[in-house]
Amino acid sequence: MSLPASMLSEQVQRVAIASLVGVGLWSYGLTMDGLVRPLVIGTEVKLATIVIEATSIVSCALMYLVTRYLPAGPQTKADAGLLFFVANALGVALLNSWAQPPVDTSRLLSWSTIVILVSSMIMPTTPKKTLISALIAASMDPLVVWSGHLRGLPTLSFVETMVLFAPNYACALVATLPARALQRLGQRLRHAQEMGSYQLVERLGRGGMGEVWRGRHRLLARSAAIKLVRPELLGAVTAVEAQSMLRRFEREAQATAALSSPHTIRLFDFGVTNDETFYYAMELLDGRDLESLVREFGPIPAERALYLLQQVCHSLADAHARGLIHRDITPSNIYVCRMGLDYDFVKVLDFGLVTYNDRHAMERTLLTGAQITTGTPAFMAPEIIDGSVDQRADVYALGCVAYYLLTGQLVFDADTPIRMFIQHLQATPEPPSQRTEMPIPRDLEALVLECLEKDPARRPPNAIELMRRLRACLRGRDWNNDAARHWWELHLTELTSTLTADENGRLETIAVR
To answer: Is residue 513 part of a domain?
Structure first.
């Protein structure tokens, strides 16, 4: 069984480092034999010694280039590392016998034993491959000694040769021990990386809630984003608290899976691993979140902002109709994607962090415990401070998002989260048109400021009403899929190429988050 891809990649990096060390050691030997000994000590060095050392330097340098720059998989590079291992053993054997005087039976261990043992701890391969390559490497010394008769040199008998180099073969057997330990570790890692029907492939990011990995369904060959959350990251201290938190996660994941808006991130699977890590398997998206989009390209024109905000409202309206509140609507939780032939297609993320819009359910929800305040200060409604949260908190947050899209700036600036939240409690927001040179229609500006009212009763009551108001603002202001595609072709060229099928004939979405 091969090692997991993540472990294999790390081991290949060690091979690259080992090849650089090999360049250094062989270069040291070449310097000593080519310059120091002849010029300082006066010792004559055979030309064969110089050729062997120079060739070994080249082979080590080539191995470094292969591991770092060859467009091949880690398994191919690992197999190339075995050849590199044997080549170094051959170089040592040639120095021992071919480039030096006839073999001395009284000498100590061959340097090949060091090459074998060190390589066994670096080379990422199976015990079987390790044993075969180690035996070949161990045999380099006997083969070079035996070949001495081709030059007319006195040679040892077969028995004498095997006795002399018996330590080589002993080290070859010992070399399988690190390989077996590495294989067992890889099996445990592979088991730990199996999340239900999904297997972790590579980590995409890390945040306060945990990690996000690229995963792959073992049967359907479908890629997914796997979000891992450990209870202690959310404040669980005791085992009872951890179990309670995991049960709440499960209930909320089930509620999330019931959401049907196409603009809500799809939840494929969820569960708990043996080490009590909760995981979500979600669709893998191809695009940018609004925070990075604005940071990279600047404020968004009003007609495009309206086009995107309506889709966010569609997702929230579905949740609000089911009694769910998102509570963490931010630009980083809103993703603008290419979905097949559709561009500027919005997906709202992190619906695993919702709360319920009724007091009985809120007592059971994950994020409404007395010790936890959720949300991002720059986008939190003032009423969150006293826990009186309903759908209008999401409306307030979406008003903050709209402000950010139109101006490229937050509603309030502050150097600490507490000061930021105090401004949301007390300060009056400056009209967005006064903080940008881009034109903002009056009806849109008025709607954004209405969403930012301190008193929830003065805001649109829910996302359904807000979506209706946004549609009224959109009249006569054209932004559609053709305009979106044109923008993507100009600014995100790498995401507008022709869709291709994977080896199983399925269209695969690639994550860039």
So the answer is: no
Task: From 102, 106, 175, select the one nearest 144 (Cα to Cα).
Answer: 102
Q: Are 80 and 129 in contact (CB under 8 A)?
A: no
Calculate helix-pair angle for 5-31, 112-122, nearest 10 degrees: 150
pTM over 0.90: no
For residues 116 and 85, what is the distance between their CA atoms, to the nearest angstrom? Answer: 8
CA-based torsion, 389, 395, 396, 400: positive or negative: positive
What is the residue type of 320?
H
**∠ Cα 136 142 145 (to 5°):** 140
Residue 510 falls inside a structural domain: no
Residue with tokens 């990386």: 193
What's the chain's length in residues?
513
Please say whether the beta carbons of 212 and 195 come within 8 A: no
In DSSP notation, 289-338 reads EHHHHHHHH-SPPHHHHHHHHHHHHHHHHHHHHTTEE-----GGGEEEEE
Domain of residue 491 covers 286-500
CB contact at 8 A, 479 and 434? no
In 3D space, the residue among 467, 471, 457 whose CA is nearest the CA of residue 319 turns out to be 467
pLDDT tens-digit readout, 24-37: 888 888 888 888 87
- Residue 321 inside a domain? The answer is yes
**Low-confidence winner among 292-296, 335-339, 456-460, 498-502 (lowest mean pLDDT):** 498-502
Closest to 91 measured CA to CA, from 57, 47, 46, 43: 57
Tokens of 38: 């002849």
Most confidently modeled of 269-273, 344-348, 366-370? 344-348
Q: Same domain, yes or no, for 166 and 214?
A: no
Closest listed residue to residue 2, CA positions, set 178, 124, 120, 181: 124
Is 41 found in the same domain as 168?
Answer: yes
pLDDT score, position 433: 96
Q: Are residues 302 and 272 in the same domain?
A: no
User: Do the beta carbons of residue 286 and residue 496 sit within 8 Å?
Assistant: no
**What percentage of the chain has pLDDT greater than the value 90?**
30
Give the C-alpha separation, 227 to 4, whole Å.
19
- Within 10 angstroms of residue 135's Cβ, the number of other Cβ atoms is 15
- Note whether 272 and 306 are same-domain residues: no
Looking at the annotation, which residues are catalytic?
328
Q: Please indicate whether residue 251 or residue 52 has the higher confidence score (pLDDT).
A: 52
Where is 81: in which H helix or E strand?
Answer: helix 74-93
Q: At a CB cut-off of 8 Å and minimum separation 6, what does 1 contact?
A: 126, 183, 186, 187
Domain co-membership, 277 together with 290: no
Predicted confidence at residue 231, as pLDDT, reads 67
DSSP state, residue 151: G
Please say which residue of 159, 190, 221 terminates a domain.
190
33-36 LR contacts (CB < 8 Å, sep 24+): none
- Looking at 190, 213, 229, the residue that finishes a domain is 190
